[in-house]
Structures are given as C-alpha cells and as structure tokens.
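Amino acids appear as letters; backbone shape is given numerically. Here is one record.
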Amino acid sequence: MLRMTALASVLALIAGTAMAEDIKVGVSPGEHAEIMEEVAKVAAPKGLNIRVVEFSDYVVPNQALADGDIQANSFQHVPYLDNQMKDRGFDLKVVGTTITTPMGVYSDKIKALADLKDGATVGIPNDPTNGGRALLVLQQLSEIKVSPDAGLKPTILDITENPKKLKFQELDAAQLPRSLADLDAALINTNYAIASGLNPKTDAIAMESADNPYVNVIVVRNGDEDQPWVKTLVDSYHSDDVKKFIEDKYHGTVLTSW
C-alpha cells in the first residue's frame, strides 16, 4: 500500500509537470496589475505560470487578446467589453468576475463636491462606457440629470439638467490624473488614480456607490473558455490568499466579487 501511494504521488507530480503552462494576462496599471501578480503566486504551484503584461490604455488589451498576443485579460467591466465587441468585432468571452473599483471624483482646487462652482470644467473619460459611467456618477451625486433612455452609456448630449452649467472635457482615462491642474474636478477610474499616486479613500472628494453594474471580469478568446488553464486562473484569482491581499492592501477602495 505504501509503495502504491508513493507511486501515485510520483505519477501525480509527473502529470502536474506535464500540464504546466505559460500564459500572458493583460492588465491595466494599478490594482489590476498588483492583484494579478498575487494571482500568479497562487497559480504557480498549480502548474500555471502567469506573465503579467501591463497596458497603458483601455483599447489595446482587447486587441492584443483578439490577436493572440496574450491569452487573457483582466481590466474591464462588462459594459465596456460589450461596447468593444460591438464596435470592434472582437469574439471574446467572460470566464469569471474579479473586483469592483468605484469611480472617484478628484480635484486639486476644491475639497468637497459642494464647492464646485457654476461653470466649472469637469474631466471625464473619453471612451463611451467610462464617460457614460462618469455622467451617471455625477447624476448619483445630484450634480446633473441624464436621460434614462441612454441606459449605461449616456453622453454629454443626454444631459437633461445641469444646474451649475458644468462644462465637460473628455480626455483619455489615463490622462485624467495628470490633467487635474487644468480642471476643476475629474472623474477617474480607481486603477489610474492608484497608478498616479492618488489614494481613493483619502484623496477623492466623492465616490461612486458600491452598488453599481461595473464589476470587472476575466476575459479570454471565445473557444478557450474550457481550457484547463482558464479554471486554474479563475480559481487562483478567487482564492482566500488573493482576497486577503485585496482587503489588506486597499482597505475597502477595491471590493471583491466573490
């Protein structure tokens, strides 16, 4: 019996080695990159070697995935992915949820949203999904109202009430933190805020409600979802070790979905 057990252990080790696989996972800077590095530590003993590849904008990671340059990405929420697939024809598949990162309002000029003056210039992301999200956050914060017919992707043209006559400047999401000096306020995604040295908990003058539809996801090419490494990737992300890392590092500014 002892010999059979030892033999089984050896065979399992050989099988595990044979199944070892290398993948590249695309992420955006900040918390997505930091968390995926922790996921890689959990996945390595399971035979999955993850190389974390950072992209500085929101468009390239899906293109890189569609082109086969990476095997998965983890940086976006479903509304953004749906918009990308519709506009660019990507054939991609969600295989797991990750985190929610509430969007924050930041300013170098005011300490509270109530101090935002009439005619102030507010920066928002220039992609349809995150730009729309920013407008919905401002609506949630009672600064504007948008047409309900616009759904999750309202544009500036869908604003129905703007009592302070706010002006909006649409900029690349990654540029918004560096543009704060030229704006009265800006709505910035948490990953770009953290990557720029901003602390969402202490530097944001207002935050999006945690009750929102923008949970982030792990995405692969359609057809790869049943590959064994996909389950290992998702299970490693959803591990207790990664959850503890997120809770300890971000102190509630990044919320887990599991």
In short: The chain has a mean pLDDT of 92. Residues 66 and 89 are 9 Å apart (CA to CA). DSSP finds nine helices and 14 strands in the chain. The chain has two domains: 21-101+214-256, 104-207.
